Fold these 3 entries.
Entry 1:
Amino acid sequence: MARYGYNVMSKVADVIENGNWNWPEDWRNVYPVLFQLPSMNLSNTPDQILWQNSEGKIVPFASKDVWNTIRIRDQQKDWSKFVWSAFNIPKHAFLCWLILKRKLWTQDRILQWNRKVHGSMNQMCCLLCYADLETHDHLFFQCSYSEKVWRIVRSKVGMTMVNEKWDDIVEWLIPRAKSRAIRMVASRLIVAAAAYAIWSERNARFFFFLGKGLPR
Ligand SMILES: [Zn+2]
């Protein structure tokens, strides 16, 4: 391009002369398509970056529109308002999302992966209670350690009647997920914070052989 006087700042107007394209003759064989472009008249209005959206309309460019055009859409999950509430602490919300998708690397998932890759099935157990296999349902909050945490925190936000099963807790939260009442906001925060604390304790024991001991 530089050989013909163009650079990255060159504009369309630089290759149009009297309404006709004025491409370097050497490009005729290399880029024949350029010579087939229809002629055009340029206006004096400032340049704009435009985008043809999914409805075929030419609209001002926005990366948000591009993302909405190319992304795969799915049904909104009924728990989304509980997880992605504006009041939630982002790192707690992200962990809740992983739990709901059953995507944490709990030992049952590690074992499955290990069996596929190495063909082995080493015995492992929950590092919080040493009594059962570590799964999502076990950690949140059916493990004896986690259950103790849950029983302490649930009474502080009016969830005393909600048992220690994650699915039951989520079922209780979903119809209240849009509420801005202080107790409902607190209930969402405390479930997410309790899950985060348990996962942190598990990781401290799993990776660093550390731990804070049983909750009081
Ligand atoms: Zn356990």
Entry 2:
Amino acid sequence: MAVLQPSRTLATCDECRAVFDPVRGGVCPQCRRLLCGDHYYGSVLRRLQGLLGFRPRCVACREGREPKVLRRR
Ligand SMILES: [Zn+2]
Ligand SMILES: [Zn+2]
């Protein structure tokens, strides 16, 4: 059975509000949003680059989209 480890702090994606492990996502250096892996890296290749220390911009910034910013409560 799955038990959340209390020592691990989970983050919330600013785009989809998904709760994720911070090591799987990151903060985009351009739009400053905290994003899950899907919205920050977008692909397995990008995620691998992230593991190597490469800090890419998020998917929205790379595509030139206006980042959607959800209001924090
Ligand atoms: Zn997300
Ligand atoms: Zn961004």
Entry 3:
Amino acid sequence: MNAVAIMLATLLAFDAAPTQSVVVSGMTFGLVVHQRSFKDCDDAAAQLSGKEIAVAHVFYHYGAVPDPSDPDLRLLVVAVDTEKSYVEIPRISWPYMSSAEIQAADRLYDDLVIHERGHLAIAVESAAEVTALKHTVPANVDPRAALTPFAALLDARQREYDALTAHGVRQSRAPANLRGDDIRLDCK
Ligand SMILES: [Zn+2]
């Protein structure tokens, strides 16, 4: 959920692999995988610990539909922009990986995907939640301006998820539909 400028700098710093996709709530989102190399497993564990090393970039569409009860009003509609929103997940490696280390790195990757998919799922849910409020927008007002009071709500839902799961380190605490294994890198 970082700023776009920071995200672009990150993408330029890594070799972005061909874009893949993840499906969340029946919607397809881009998945950018970048390779990150370390000296060894302990180096990776030390550098990655305590940080959210994957990122979900979420963008919303705002619109308005006619209010059936008042021709001068429209109702705010918010949806996740599936074209623009995407997740970035690193794939980590180091020289001479043992098969156990390859498994540990694969597991880390899979668990990161689960955590970031959760951010997208929450974005879809909270956009629907804002739409369900049937907030009215005067016909002459840009619906984007009407969204401002709800932007905090959309952000808060993402922060609650990160607080609850400690950025995925405690993914087992997530709501049932988003639950997964706790993210960790097991160095033998
Ligand atoms: Zn997170």
